[in-house]
Design a protein that fits this description.
Blueprint: E1 15-18, H1 28-43, E2 47-50, H2 61-75, H3 98-111, E3 114-117, H4 121-133, E4 145-146, H5 149-157, E5 163-166, E6 173-178, E7 182-187, E8 195-197, H6 205-215, E9 220-224, H7 231-241, E10 247-251, E11 254-255, H8 268-271, H9 275-291, H10 305-311, H11 315-323, H12 338-344, E12 355-356, H13 359-371, H14 375-388, H15 400-411, H16 438-445, H17 450-462, H18 469-483, H19 488-499, H20 507-514, H21 516-531
Parallel strand pairs: 1-2, 9-10, 11-12
Antiparallel strand pairs: 3-4, 3-5, 5-8, 6-7
This protein binds one RNA strand of 76 nucleotides through helix 4, strand 7, strand 8, helix 6 and strand 12.
Length: 532
RNA sequence: GGCCCCAUCGUCUAGCGGUCUAGGACUCCGGCCUUUCACGCCGGCAACACGGGUUCGAGUCCCGUUGGGGUCACCA
């Protein structure tokens, strides 16, 4: 067995892959891994392949796969080969490639790199336990190993069944070069004789993965660091099979908010103690509640990509944020378009240490990308939310476009995610259905003299012409001048009267958007209520 | 526990032996703008885990300690 592996140069184009198993959701850390693979392939004019690792998966693969594909489509991470698009190496489902895997297992067996093992799981377990009790490093004794047909027959006579195990080297080191971590070495002696094929003939992940990577001509295996310690056995398989070895690059994982452990969707309770993570959740839940989206923590949380789509985040913002989680170009550049990412990306600049997920920084990227969005795109983003809540008909009446533009423009940066449009429902509800926020009403309208001022200004507003923001503002300014009061003494009451809320878009924009009739009706309604 | 990996402000990071009294971004804290809330603008707090080497010189190289993490399946 050679220890030092040669560096291969690849005459063929770069081919990377992301191999999710169909779990029913797309994990944020998985996205980052996929992104780096995608970027690397695009950067080198190669191909990005999606392969489905559904070995051992029961039926329903399709249902469990759909959210993952949908997530990638939404994020704009496209694949050159894989489900739905197929390609020269189809099928791209591992479960449909068992013939190749079995042939590989057989080849390893014949060549002596693997053996039939007749041990029962209990016997192996017993060995493992006694090693542990004696504080010895565990290595399988190979007691039930059959290398000849005679041995096999003897075991079979006892009614035993065999699995196929790798016959791992027991001296020397497995040394390889990782594109991110540099030279890495593991002692062969500590590697187990991993099972590659079960008694029923089905093959296991490591074999399948190596065979598929080789068949698909994957040149660079870019994956999470947790696979680093799996690499020796995969190298052993690949070499024993006579396959070309791909380059390896092990990415640091995405760590939990305010922590260093790998982020997981099962530890939500813990993350909720983090103030920023909680507010990210709360914001999402509030929007989900409005649009009637189910918010079970299991299916709807910031570790799952769906969350961001439902709440109205921008794919570009998420991608940009994820890109900087473990990679940087220099000491200042933070914003990247897709093209810029592709031209600048390199594995050399990927960090070695885990990067913790920071909800605030994500929000900052979201804001910046929203600010760059042309108004029409912003409107298009927001409309589905209005439709889901019945605030706008579907399809929207053709005369609503200018109205929507005005609202979205007026709301400006207050719309941080598309779902935030729902905070501006006052521009969509009927005048007689406008709810008044109790706190704001009490504080601003029930205040001494406020209602009186409002009543007076109402009549001035009634004669404002044209009813636009400039005229309204001029009217109010001259009103406060004549009354010798400060603007704050009336404008808040006016806001509550016409929007029902204490906060919102600029006052005069709001008046203009609503129009004179609505404003007057709303003020009257407010005054009537104040009288009660 | 064995093995492996990692280590610069609270967080993401720049730094590849001297230009570092360590730079940027997010957060946070002041202030400005202002009709609210956002936004924007200005300013501020804040880090090389520790100990040994190597070197004229170490955040940068080496070793150790400590700390954190990953992985140890007939899961993927």
């Amino acid at each position: 067995m050679t220890n030092v592996l040669p560096r291969h140069s690849y005459p063929m184009t770069v081919r990377t892959r992301f191999a999710p198993s169909p779990t029913g959701y797309l994990h944020i850390g998985g996205v980052r891994t996929a992104l780096f693979n995608w970027l690397f392939a695009r950067k080198h004019g190669g191909q990005f392949i999606l392969r489905i690792d559904d070995t051992d998966q029961e039926r329903n693969v399709e249902a469990a796969l759909e959210p993952i594909l949908e997530g990638f489509r939404w994020l704009g991470i496209d694949w050159d080969e894989g489900p739905c698009v197929d390609g020269p190496h189809a099928p791209y489902f591992q479960s449909q490639r068992s013939e190749q895997h079995q042939a590989a297992a057989k080849q390893l067996l014949v060549a002596g790199f693997a053996y039939r093992d007749y041990a029962t799981p209990e016997e192996v377990q017993a060995e493992r336990e006694s090693a542990e009790k004696e504080k010895r490093d565990y290595v399988y004794s190979r007691r039930w190993m059959a290398e000849t047909d005679e041995q096999a027959a003897a075991f079979e006579a006892e009614g035993r069944k065999f699995v196929v195990r790798l016959k791992m080297p027991r001296d020397g080191k497995c040394e390889f070069h990782d594109l991110i971590r540099g030279d890495v070495a593991f002692d062969w002696a500590r590697e187990q004789d991993h099972v590659i094929q079960r008694a029923d003939g089905s093959c296991l992940y490591h074999l399948a993965s190596v065979v598929d990577d080789s068949d698909f001509e994957i040149t660079h295996v870019i994956r999470a660091a947790e696979h680093l310690s799996n690499t020796p056995r995969q190298i052993f398989i690949a070499q024993s099979l006579g396959c070309n070895l791909p380059e390896f690059a092990h990415l640091p994982y995405v760590a939990e908010p305010s922590g260093t452990a790998k982020i997981s969707k099962r530890k939500l309770d813990k993350y909720l103690k983090n103030r920023d993570f909680k507010s990210l959740c709360d914001h999402g839940n509030a929007i989900a509640a409005k649009i009637g989206h189910e918010t079970t923590a299991d299916t709807f949380n910031p570790v799952i990509v769906d969350f961001y789509r439902e709440v109205g985040y921008l794919p570009d913002a998420i991608i940009n944020y994820l890109l900087l989680l473990g990679w940087s170009l220099d000491d200042k550049t933070e914003e990247f378009t897709r093209d810029e990412m592709i031209t600048h990306f390199s594995l050399e600049r990927v960090n070695k240490s885990p990067a913790s997920f920071d909800p605030q920084k994500l929000s900052a990227f979201q804001l910046r990308h929203m600010q760059h969005l042309p108004i029409k795109q912003k409107v298009a983003l927001v409309v589905p939310f209005l439709q889901k809540t019945g605030l706008v008909a579907s399809p929207p009446p053709c005369d609503t476009a200018p109205h929507l533009i005005k609202i979205v423009e007026a709301a400006g940066d207050r719309i941080k995610t598309a779902g935030d449009i729902l905070e501006f429902d006052e521009f969509f509800v009927n005048d007689d259905a406008l709810p008044f926020e109790e706190k704001a009403f009490k504080k601003r309208v029930c205040k001494d003299g406020a209602a009186e001022l409002l009543r007076e200004f109402r009549d001035i507003l009634a004669s404002a012409e044209p009813f636009d923001r400039e005229t309204c503002e001029a009217a109010l300014r001259s009103f406060i001048e004549s009354k010798e009061i400060k603007i704050g003494e009336i404008i808040h009451a006016l806001r509550v009267a016409v929007t029902g809320k204490g906060v919102g878009v600029g006052m005069f924009e709001a008046l203009e958007i609503l129009g004179k009739d609505s404003c007057l009706v709303r003020i009257d309604r407010c005054l009537a209520r104040a009288d009660d």
